[in-house]
Amino acid sequence: MAKSKSEETPLMQQHNAIKTKYPDAVLLFRVGDFYETFNEDAVIASRVLGIVLTKRANGSASYVDLAGFPHHALDTYLHKLVKAGHRVAVCDQLEDPKTVKGIVKRGVTEMVTPGVAVNDKLLENSSNNFLAAVHFGATATGVAFLDISTGEFVVAQGNEEYIEKLLQSFKPAEVVFARPQQKHFKQVFGSRFYTYTLEEWIFTTQYAQETLLKHFGTHSLKGFGVDDMQEAHIAAGATLHYLRDTEHPHLQHITGMQRLEQDDFLWMDRFTVRNLELLNSSVENGHTLLQVLDNTVSPMGARLLKRWLVFPLRDIQQINERLDVVEYFIRETDLAKGLQQHLKQAGDLERLVSKIPLKKINPREVMQLAKSLQQVAAIQELLATTDNAYLQRLHAQLDPCPAILERILEQVTETPPVQAIKGGVIREGIHPELDKLRLIASSGKEYLLRIQQQESEATGIPSLKVAFNNVFGYYLEVTNAHRNKVPTNWIRKQTLANAERYITPELKEYEEKITGAEEKILTLEIQLFDDLLLALQEYIVPVQQNAQAMARMDCLLCFAANALQYKYRRPLLTEDHTLDIRDGRHPVIERGLPAGEAYVANDILLDQETQQIIILTGPNMSGKSALLRQTALITLMAHMGSFVPASAATIGLTDKIFTRVGASDNLSGGESTFMVEMNETASIINNITPRSLVILDEIGRGTSTYDGISIAWSIVEYLHDMTEHRPKTLFATHYHELNELENKHGRVKNFHITNMESGNKVIFLRKLAPGGSRHSFGIHVARMAGMPPALVERANEVLGTLEEKHIEAPLQKNVKQIAPSAAKVQLSIFDAHSDTFKEIRDMLEHVDINRLTPVEALLKLSEIKQLLK
Ligand SMILES: Nc1ncnc2c1ncn2[C@@H]1O[C@H](COP(=O)(O)OP(=O)(O)OP(=O)(O)O)[C@@H](O)[C@H]1O
């Protein structure tokens, strides 16, 4: 039965009133030294935190569930709740209970959600923690990414595919959007993100503009260069609204918005980011490109490297600037080492500075900030004479902020406590009043020691000692053996098993003096520390600029170190369309090879004149996929401004890399795997440009062999015939039939990966050679994989029989199976002179691929099949 309000205790009434404002958050309710949770929150807290669930009387009527933990354990428990996917509202006592009669005023001082976290325990050093807001407008979708822990604020707008790719690249910890758009959001982006919905009125132009202008204190947003992005504005306004809503009013460290423009970066769609295993591996414990490239020494550098990886550059000049610095560092090894040393010691300047306005920076971190600024000064000195233009610019961007640096070093003690409330933060000689009080406190303590000595002598109790506890302050402790020597004017306060504790008027008098002074010291120290933090606010922008410059330096030093350690070479970026890689290697696989095993390097040449499309065949496990991917990865690394795993590489500027991998059966999600494969491939066709690199790995394998061959065949033809684009394409396949294409299309070239047969074993040579290959050696792979010998033998037998039956060329072999009755006429459906081919060609000519849906494509395919019957 529902209780009437009056039956509940005042505390619970207060709790419930606050809880109604934060219905979907776990409310941590401060009661004295504890944070308590009640009712359903208590059930969650006890389950997630492993703390005891108890019951507590709630007025005359009933009981409530209760689970709590000591207030000093907040950090530990808070992050566990948030990591478990809960939103947490921290409700504190807003008054000093000592000064209040009755119930203390309480209020939520902070909401922590996965996307709004500043606590070190919730953050990963090498990753940003972005909150994203998405707004689906009538003609475009806007997105904003905001990391409250670093102050970064990025906005973009475009079509849904672009926004999805950005979401995948930024990996926000939380995405907010308007409540009515819930269904649409799910349709477009699935349920991969932690989401939260907000009221629709927040997502309006006017409100967003007001919010942004108010935050930045400007009259227009012109200065940010984001004028024309209305939907992005709305998303940006929503992120700021959400931060305020979660009790984060102090956001001075969010000093600007950065516009992200699709055309500024080499575009990789989400399939490509996934297929190339840039950030995540497809197998458990597998390595990613990020892991092998990341040898940065600072968290700021690590975060920036991730950004560079998913947003490689597309401007030759900017790429060359980075490459020049890498080359410079390789030459100037001493300078590089020195810079790295200083960066290592600089800590996470970016996150430190963000804690200032949020009032989360503790005294020890302020000291760390000063030490980081000292490193900035050292780096500045090292770079003072550099003749590299890019480094000169970074040098100019550095500012060790000497005034505030000096102030911190002068005022803060060498090793201050983590919590300002512990005292001992401010040095002697900074504030006369503080010094005076400290003298009183310390001389008071000496006086107490004197009392101990005096009383000990007067009473003849040698073991007499003065001590302190929170219950009755300073006391004299006498062991039982000397109890009879205690003077009558001492007041007994406590009896222990082997001792008794007393107070005296004199003791109390001094106690008051000391504790009074100690309290005043603490208040003064906190005030002085707050003044210092206030002064630090003025330095947010220069410190952030230091952090950005240092992050860049760190990434470029990391490229130089990688180049030296792993023998990477400088790529040559050109404006033309040739991709010419000599002795290319796969940067991830080569690092995982067993000791003593060398990666076999290969050359790849693709251009638009003679070798636009390579059809790559070779046995299973020979290294086709590796070669395909390394080509994409080398191209990508070059556009990041990194040296590449090759002896030389000339790389025509690339605007898009597409990779598609034939659907494997473990894909889930309801759609047919073939459909997924076709959907993915169709989106390439519609987005190709002359500067695109297309990597197709066994496309068409998700369906029956004949369908697969036909589709693969027509894709290659289509790419070949896109005369105004001519995208450079690598196509790995098991369908040897595709080798026929070389004879029919001038810019298609066959290559295979060599192997050697020795007895009935295959030795992989992994060397690329011109020409197609005939077998796929699947049975050898089956043997290598440890299939029972009898099974392997039988497979060989079956293969022999099949091969005997179809001794014709592989392509003709398949055609015969397709149309046995018409073998004479249709030596090959792909024979350009056959009637069927002409019919198919006519049919295809009338198809507008840009408008064809996947289902229509399948129907077309089925029509084509009918023609073959
Ligand atoms: N050039 C190389 N040098 C050394 N090892 C290599 C090389 N290329 C590939 N490998 C090794 O061989 C393994 C198989 O390569 P990959 O997956 O590229 O073969 P594949 O031809 O694509 O096989 P499948 O056709 O079965 O998909 C890789 O995991 C890698 O360990």
UniProtKB/TrEMBL annotation:
CDD domains: ABC_MutS1. SUPFAM superfamilies: DNA repair protein MutS, domain I, DNA repair protein MutS, domain II, DNA repair protein MutS, domain III, P-loop containing nucleoside triphosphate hydrolases. GO terms for biological process: mismatch repair. ATP binds at G618, P619, N620, M621, S622, G623, K624, S625. Residues 692-708 form the DNA mismatch repair proteins mutS family domain. This is DNA mismatch repair protein MutS. GO terms for cellular component: cytosol.
